Amino acid sequence: MPLEQTPSAPPVPLAGFLKALRERAVVLGLLALLVIGLLGAAAATGWQETLDQIRKLSLWQVGALLLLSLINYALRGLRWHIFAKHLGLGLTLQRNMLHFLGGFAMTVTPGRLGELVRMRWIKRETGWAIERTAPLVLVDRASDLAAMAILMGAALCLSGTQISGGIPVTLLALIAAFIVTRPALLASLARVGYRTTGLVPRMFVRLRRASQALVPFSTGGTLMTGSVLAFIGWLAEGIAFYLLLAWMGADVSASTAIAIFLFSTLAGGLTGAPGGVGGAEAAMIALLSFEGVPLALSLPATALIRLTTLWFAIVIGLALFPIAERVSKRVQNELETP
């Protein structure tokens, strides 16, 4: 009798493995270039000056910066819950917050596509297909764009600061948010785009489906509520940047600091780099220099605000990611058990 052979595990598709490897290499490469650039610039201005600026901050001041970031995350998480509830998902506030915050672990994936892991958790716990829940990501981004564009526009007007590209970026963000949150307009653009070009039909079909999925969010003031929460949240982080600059001795007004922070965040996102790494930092340092802030101060200020915003969010995400994975798998098993 022939010996029974133990079935081997199915091989991992080579294409998927190589894609994941490339994405990780891109992220690590960007981070390495960022660190090298910051270290080189700090060395050019003098290590001692840079360290002296960092030492000006006390523990309570760092705690205040982190608290303001937490306010941003909490308000945007509440917005995610409101959107999910309006869509018809029967998940609790605690579960939606876990999904939203846990998704921050994937912030540094290219285009932040890794944050779609939230859709996977929702599918496990509710059985909803990703096509039905994907509008959550779209409306979440649109709400952020609208809030950040309005806040930055107001800050630019109040500060009188001339940021090159500030108005175009603001207008682009507002236009994108307006189109995405108008299902009928988005569907019309998809039809016109296809009839005019005849190219990439799959993309226009997806746009039309997305417009249909956004219909539930266009009623009941849901988008307005979400944008107000996002406005307050991003304002909190903008104030954190202003306080940081003031504590470090920079003579920059609150409106100017908020405008610089938001413009840099949006500009970094437009580069498509994971988390806007590199682009946001470069824009922030350059704009602070235009305001007369010396490099020895703008470098540590930029590094610290990114640590207490972007990287703080990633740390929270990394802490909650395994919990969200474990909970979603447990719920999935319970649903599948007869």
From TrEMBL:
Domain of life: Bacteria
GO cellular component: plasma membrane
Keyword Repressor attributed: no
Transmembrane parts of this sequence: 25-45, 57-75, 145-163, 169-192, 213-235, 241-263, 275-297, 303-324
Keyword Ribosomal protein: no
Keywords: Cell membrane, Membrane, Transmembrane, Transmembrane helix
Subcellular location: Cell membrane
Pfam families (alphabetical): LPG_synthase_TM
Membrane topology annotation: Multi-pass membrane protein
NCBIfam families recorded: flippase-like domain
Protein name per UniProt: Uncharacterized protein (TIRG00374 family)
Protein source organism: Pacificibacter maritimus
